[in-house]
Amino acid sequence: MTDHIVAPADELEEGGRIITELNGREICVFNIDGEYYAYNNWCAHQAGPICEGNITGTTEASFDPESLEVSLDYCREGEILNCPWHGWEYEVKSGKCLSRQKVQLPSYAVRVEGEDIIVTL
Amino acid sequence: MSQQAQKQESIQDTTIVDTDVHLSVPAKEVAKYTDEPYRSHMANTGYAPLPSSGWDRNLAGKIEHYTVQSPEDVQQRLCEEFQIDHPILNATSKLPRLPQSDLAVNLMSAYNDLLIDQYLDEYDHFYGLASLATQKPDKAAEELDRLGDEDQIVGAYIATTGPNPPLGDPEYDILYQAAQDNDIHIAYHGSGGAFMFEFPRQNQSFEKFIEVHTMAHTWSQMMTLSSLLVHGVPEKFPDLNFTFLEAGIGWIPMMMFRLNKEYSIRRSEAPLLEKSPEEYIREFYFASQPIGEANDPKHMKQLIDIVGVDSLTFASDYPHWDFDHPDALEQYLSTFNEEGRQKIMYKNAADAFALDL
């Protein structure tokens, strides 16, 4: 395990991301609400550049068996990372895929030490 | 080179022909190649001059909207990033659904001239499919005669969602005869955007594009395949190759075995056939995209095995939203020997379109 300095922390604002190459891999660090998350820029579907996709909300639904009504809810704005190639949805904070229960983006430990963002590979 | 381009060395070592690459031609660009009054029609129609179904393919921005609007787009994004050696380009799916047949006929030549002028003349390793307007089969035949000497035009692109009657009808024999005479092989391609014309319940009853798009291409290709066989088209034009694009391969075993059964009972309704439907279908070619995503990969391998190592070709469908990277097919080919992998990644396409590779 090796620590890599990605960037000074003040270069990554809330809502932003930095994609860099570490050990031959493209790694992305997101700053979501002041917390940092690091993933491979590599979609589990067809290896698209997942970390370059839009961060949006998504649509969820619930079914009320009493009224037989389905309620649609566009929710989780800012929490869903979408692959720009084919739209596979992942939770940006956990890397969990929304459509495939067993699929998860590989993640890396990331922390701020002093003034720097550090990723451990 | 991006991380995506580096990832599998085996792809870099394999020649790849991509049988389905779409241009994204703006209306004003193709208008330059039309004659009057069509040029003014294209320039002055307040609404989009070509019909659109209006569905949101890009999921409100979740999926990036990619386009191919220059030969450099093809060269950089497909040939270099995806290691495609020979893209086979097509320029439009819309001609057969245009209600105005004279416009469709004029646009046919315009799209084909644009393809040659702006793309094929720029890169020798590009190939192209001539788009055909099916409303006037004699005009399509004239177009194939006109393009017969173009070395890089290797096939005819026939949109299967829209033509009426279905494409085995004897009305089209003049078109197939011209294709055979000019050594221009046939590529059929369905369309989600035109499915509302073929199947009006699409826009009356479906609420989501996922429903439309799951059905449209395969439904149109099944209709075309049935029509071709019942009318005996492969018997009438034995030197013509037929390739089916953008419907994946899951529907093919069903059609083989179901048509076999029907034919055994109802042979007298397809009297030109001299062998089983399955045998004809095994002489056709089928593009991989959109590759199915079975929960158990073993089932995809079995499906590829049924369709056959001599029939499958690679297609990306780039730049459309459901395109496949070559890896999406390659991952299922590990059980084939090198010869089998080469057939699927380029040799079958070379046979289907008589490419000089």
UniProtKB/TrEMBL annotation, chain A:
The segment(s) forming the Rieske domain are: 3-119
**Lineage top rank: taxon:** Archaea
Pfam families reported for this sequence:
Rieske
Q: Which residues form a coiled coil?
A: none
Query: Which SUPFAM superfamilies does the UniProt entry name for this protein?
Result: ISP domain (SSF50022)
- Keyword Membrane attributed: no
> A single Gene Ontology molecular function, please?
2 iron, 2 sulfur cluster binding
InterPro entries in the record, alphabetically? Rieske_2Fe-2S, Rieske_2Fe-2S_sf
Keyword terms of this UniProt record: 2Fe-2S, Iron, Iron-sulfur, Metal-binding, Plasmid
The protein depicted here goes by the name Rieske (2Fe-2S) iron-sulfur domain protein
Task: Tell me the classification of the organism that encodes this protein.
Answer: Archaea, Methanobacteriati, Methanobacteriota, Stenosarchaea group, Halobacteria
